[in-house]
Amino acid sequence: MRIFSGIQPTGALHIGNYLGAIKQFLELQEKEECVFCIVDLHAMTIPYDPRTLPKNVLDAAVCYLASGIDPEKSILFVQSQVTEHTELAWILNTVTPVGDLLRMTQYKEKSRQFQKDLNAGLLNYPILMAADILLYQTEVVPVGQDQQQHVELARTIARAFNHRFGPTFVEPRVSLPKTGAKILSLTDPKKKMSKSVPPSCLYLFDEPEIIEKKIMAAVTDLGREIKFDPIKKPGIANLLTVYSQFSGLAIPKIEKKFRNKGYADFKKSLAQVIIEALEPLRKKRKELLSREVYVREILSQGAKKARSIAQSTMEEVRKKTGLV
Ligand code: AMP
Ligand code: TRP
Fold first, then answer.
1. Which of 64, 94, 129, 242 could form a disulfide with 69 if both were Cys (CB 3.0 to 4.6 A apart)?
2. Domain enclosing residue 17, as ranges
């Protein structure tokens, strides 16, 4: 089975990225054919500095590898190094209704945020994402909940293309984790943890002191009971989810452990659980930061492998669409 997913090289990875997406990658790479992509072309749709993009891309690669993506098992590459992504995106533009793009939740949010200089890339973002996915004849796309709508649109686009030009693409389906598909903000547990709101984030590579500080300061709910109730106690429910995911303990077990204890005890223990679980990742990252040549070589080998799959899909697409 072919798996594809992408992460933007914009800012550090947070525990939402890890629990929503990366943990799925780690399981899938053990048995399936996985392709993971650093989507630098998507990162251009919001204001950015061309001088820092190369460093951010390399950082993203280091973080992926430190989190456990194994280049012996998975293909890891940079989107702009395989030009077929933009070529296919153009062609998919011609089978995608504008109305479908206008109703995307992420577009609605971002177009509000960047009202003053709204670029067409922000609207067409899901088409490039569909091209990423369809180029590799992907069956399953592991993502967090916020990307589900985009994967469903990629499926619709595949179907529209196949209908118009004959069977060409696999129709991909989304994979969400059973728990952790939407990790909430530490400062406002009604919203998701998001790279674009730094105070909301607990970063994967935060140092232990910072992890402790952020967890102790995390916004929680009225009362003092440690109980999983996402409606009445979204803050505590979110922290219980994180606790469970990093410790491997089921939520009822954790509730029991902290019965008759307060939020402070719970948070202290949670910080320790996270610090310990992430220790090997922090170590691996530090080691990789001093091995830039090695990381670049992985990306270059990854691009070679990705290109060979992408080129064979594009050859068929060109034939089917009369571009010969
Ligand atoms: P991004 O950081 O937007 O490039 O997202 C990378 C991956 O992490 C995507 O699969 C997202 O769906 C997932 N993700 C982002 N934020 C969260 C969150 N708060 N909870 C769970 N998954 C998330
Ligand atoms: N849009 C995704 C995000 O912001 C990143 C992404 C780009 C992606 N192309 C993809 C995810 C293809 C899955 C499949 O998180």
1. 64
2. 2-181+292-321
Cα(152) to centroid of ligand 2, in Å? 12
**CB of 129 sitting under 6 A from ligand 2:** yes
Verify that 216 and 166 share a domain, yes or no: no
- Is position 183 annotated in a ligand binding site? yes
Q: Is residue 114 part of a domain?
A: yes
pLDDT digits (tens, 9 = 90+) for 148-170: 999 999 999 999 999 999 999 99
Same domain for 213 and 111: no
pTM of the model: 0.96
Residue 17 marked ligand-binding: yes
The reply to whether ligand 1 has any atom less than 6 angstroms from the CB of 177 is: no
Lowest-confidence region among 133-137, 195-199, 254-258, 312-316:
195-199
CA distances to 10, 139, 193 from 196, in Å: 9, 30, 9
Determine if residue 8 is labeled as part of a ligand binding site: yes
* Backbone dihedral angles phi then psi of residue 9, each to the nearest 5 degrees: -85, 55
**Tokens linked to 180:** 């952790």
Nearest CA to ligand 2 atom 6: 6
Reported as a single tens digit per residue, the pLDDT across 265-319 is 999 999 999 999 999 999 999 999 999 999 999 999 999 999 999 999 999 999 9
Q: Which of 5, 10, 17 to mutate to test the pocket of ligand 1 (most atoms within 8 A of CB)?
A: 17
Instruction: Please indicate whether residue 16, judged by its CB atom, sits closer than 6 Å to ligand 1.
Output: yes
174 and 219 fall within a common domain = no
In whole angstroms, give the CA distance from residue 28 to residue 33.
8
Residue nearest to atom 3 of ligand 2 (CA): 7
Q: What is the dihedral of CA 126, 132, 137, 143, to 10 degrees?
A: -70
Specify whether 173 is located in the same domain as 259.
Answer: no
In CATH, what number is assigned to the domain containing residue 241?
A: 1.10.240.10
12 φ, ψ to 5°? -70, 155
Same domain as 277, residue 302: no
301 shares its domain with 277: no
Q: Is 16 annotated among the ligand-binding residues?
A: yes
**Best residue among 77, 107, 143, 176 to mutate for probing ligand 2, ranked by most atoms within 8 Å of CB:** 143
Look at residues 12, 5, 9, 3 and name the one whose alpha carbon lies nearest to residue 282: 12
